[in-house]
Amino acid sequence: MTTDAAAHATAPDTVLDVSARAPRVRASWGELAALLVGDLTNVRWLTGFTGSAGTVVLLPDEVVLITDGRYGDQAERQLAAAGCAGRVLVGRTAGEQLGLLTEVVAEAERLGFESAHTSHARWVQLSEALPGRLVPTTGLIEAGRRTKDPAEIALMQRACAIADAALAEVAPTLVPGRTEVQVRNDLERLMREFGATGPSYETIVATGPVNAPLPHHRPTDTAIEAGHTVIIDVGALVGGYHSDMTRTYVIGDPTPLQQEVYDAVLAAQVAGVAAVRPGITTQELDAVCRGLLTEAGFGPWFSHGTGHGVGLLIHEDPFVNSAGGWVLQEGDVVTVEPGVYRGDFGGVRVEDLVEVTSTGGRALTTTPKDSPCPPSRPTT
Description:
Creatine Amidinohydrolase, Chain A, domain 1; 2 domains; elongated
């Protein structure tokens, strides 16, 4: 592990302060009198609570978390640690929890609910308990989650450093005979040893002309062979926050076609990272990468969007693609990951996680990408 990677990977736990988040949401909710938050990722962002059951009622002057008997003490501790001056109510049954919710919102006439995260059955239940008072909302919490504060960036940078460090250990072992599953297992073991909770997602290791053309291939017992391209898409999870990075290697000397494709993908990816800045639309950013690959003759084989937001979820707003209507803003963290996939040579993808700063983009992932050749093992 490099000195910089080691420093980030072993840094003390970052403490998140969520106290400013509820006021930000209230400032954007218009004429609502309260907001019901049931999506657990949004509940966590708003309060710091990580349990598997809970509903937040956001009132004009109070945050109330309703949960079941498993989580009462945990919720009290986590809200206090996160700086959320909220009240925790415990109902042992679903009926008791619905009764508590009804009491909490007794004076509120316009109750926002998360339409994208509410099942029809839950909507019917709430409608019967709170007739004529429900107002559908979309993205009120997600809009706040987009802007990462310094503590969130620190967690994501630590996750990136752990993934960088794990890949630095594993990349030199990419030799004929090693299987995709073995490489994946080594990466995930090392990330845990370096301080991650676990992998950010199911690690992708894809080798050869059959597997590497599949952008989200799941590792198998397929063995690496000389002449293969090997795509490794790896991320670490730290404090609930994700990292995301892809590097592609060629086993042995690249063929002229493999080198041509790698150079084209790398040029598109570097240009995309350089284009990241506040004010650029996600469609414009996608066009930077897609345009260069099209000019190089590989446009038809770039089969997915250029990137996506990352945070408490591995895929979240904003999404960077040819249909995107998002505008990047300071505090966004997005991937830039063009790729080309063809059965005659395999696949190539290069990806970095990039923070949108006031002056441009800052790559949080640092694994070298200038060459498709795997690094050699250290001699000392």
